[in-house]
Amino acid sequence: MTASATLRQENEEQRDTNGTGGLRIVLVAYSCDPTRGTEPGMGWAWAEALAQRGHFVELLTRPQNKNVQEIARRLKELGQVGRRIAPHFVREPTCPRWVRMPAQASQFVRYDGWQRRALSHARQHGLAGADLVHHVSYGSLVGGSALRHLGPPLVFGPVGGGQTAPRSHRRYLGAAYRQETLRELLWVRGLSRRPSCRATVREAALVLTTNRDTARRARLLGRTDTRMMLSDGIPDRLVRKSTERNPKGAVRPPTVLWVGGLVPIKAPALALLSFASLLAEVPDARLVVLGGGPLRAELTHLAARLNVAKSICFRGRVPWEQAIAAYDDADVLLFTSLRDSFGVQALEAWARGLPVVHLDHQGIRDFSAPGGAVAVPLGRPTDLPQRLAQALGGVLTDHETRRRMATAGLSWAQQHTWSAKAELAEQLYRGVLSDD
Asked: Does residue 241 sit in helix, strand or coil?
């Protein structure tokens, strides 16, 4: 008997004994790694949070980098909870060397092939007897889920993928706007019409979307009863116990923090333009930029042209612990992304009692902390930097405003910890199974 089968039997015996044991869940997480952030980190966080609530998780993923060893290490650390997670590593197919295609297209082809392999593996290993299937990664609508064929009810999402960059603000995307237009035509409008995507959206017992743009795309594909749910989450330990920002009384300049990849869709140039405008009101302010990417040199030159280089610190990519320390050492987070499912930076900021200034569109608009953020409308692109600067200035110059926003942000973050998300997911599972 395999280790997975042994653990499954123990779980079934526990359920038979107390009558209220956890569910057996097939968790589809193409990207999964307990040591990483973004999608791999979310894939693992779902598995661990569900196991913490007493459910038995059949984790379908792929071997990537060192995740096999890292998952094994984390399972050992979790002890009894780790015994409720059975990882299944399914290798993805490789494209022949003679086939040349763009990187994103190649990855999507491999992902489609992996899904078929994962379905075959699940059938061969008895996973069709699970209570339900929950597909969390890819977290994109257009990928669909081949696991809808396994048999148990499918919970699909939370997924994004329906959002597009606003044409009106293409000046902040530069040459990348052409790529964004191509993405919209091929990825959002084209691939979402594939039969596998349409079938997933229509046949799933429950479709969860992480923003209204994706919900709108799902309706166009024939699904009218989607439910909104934030795809991102945070560890419970990340939420601060106090709103006090500077308990040691250290003196430092008013600090704006920007976190993200230095790529066009995140619009870091917009952040620099806004900060330059802010200095007219708060001349001693500083901007700290966390993240690396292809725009680093271009942004350095822009800072010099704007004559603000001495007030900006580009720190590059830093370990997660250092990023959290940067949240604690700032006064406000600026989020300027022009295309995003959400933006976990904002959730991390709220968890540390840090107010957020963000654009009022897409996922961040749908899950912004009530009272914990200033949402700036896109409006006219010409004066957007000035309007962002005005919002930043209003936060930086009013201590009482920052205190109120910190309290509201902490309250919101507590509703989106992984334990809270697992509890909500459990309620949704029970609803799906009661309707089945």
From this structure: coil
User: Any idea where the domains of the chain sit in the sequence?
Assistant: 3-8+20-160+194-233+417-435, 236-414
The matching CATH number, chosen from 3.30.70.260, 3.40.50.2000, 3.30.40.230, 1.10.600.10, for 3-8+20-160+194-233+417-435 is 3.40.50.2000
Q: How far is CA 424 from the centre of its chain?
A: 17
Beta strands in 101-211 (DSSP E): 132-137, 154-159, 206-209
For residue 313, what is the enclosing H or E element?
Answer: strand 312-316
**Residue 79, SS3 per DSSP:** coil
Architecture of domain 236-414: 3-Layer(aba) Sandwich (3.40)
DSSP 369: P
Q: Which segments of the chain have a pLDDT < 70?
A: 1-20, 95-105, 245-250, 436
Instruction: Report pLDDT digits (tens) over 285-341.
Output: 999 999 999 999 999 999 999 999 999 999 999 988 899 999 999 999 999 999 998
CB 29 within 8 Å of CB 44: yes
CA angle 309, 300, 383 (to 5 degrees): 75
Q: Cα dist. 392→276, 282, 404 in Å?
A: 12, 9, 15
Return all residues near 220 (Cβ < 8 A) that are at least 6 apart: 192
**Are the CB atoms for 193 and 246 separated by under 8 Å?**
no
Does residue 138 have a cis bond before it (omega within 30 degrees)?
Answer: yes
Backbone CA torsion sign across 401, 234, 339, 178: positive
Tokens at 60, concatenated: 């379908």
Average pLDDT, the chain: 90
Helix (H, G, I), strand (E, B) or coil at 28: strand
Q: Which two tokens stand for residue 201?
A: 């959206």
Task: Count Cβ atoms below 10 Å from residue 99 Cβ, excluding itself.
Answer: 9
As to burial, measured by CB atoms within 10 angstroms (0-12 exposed, 13-18 middle, 19+ buried), residue 373 is: buried
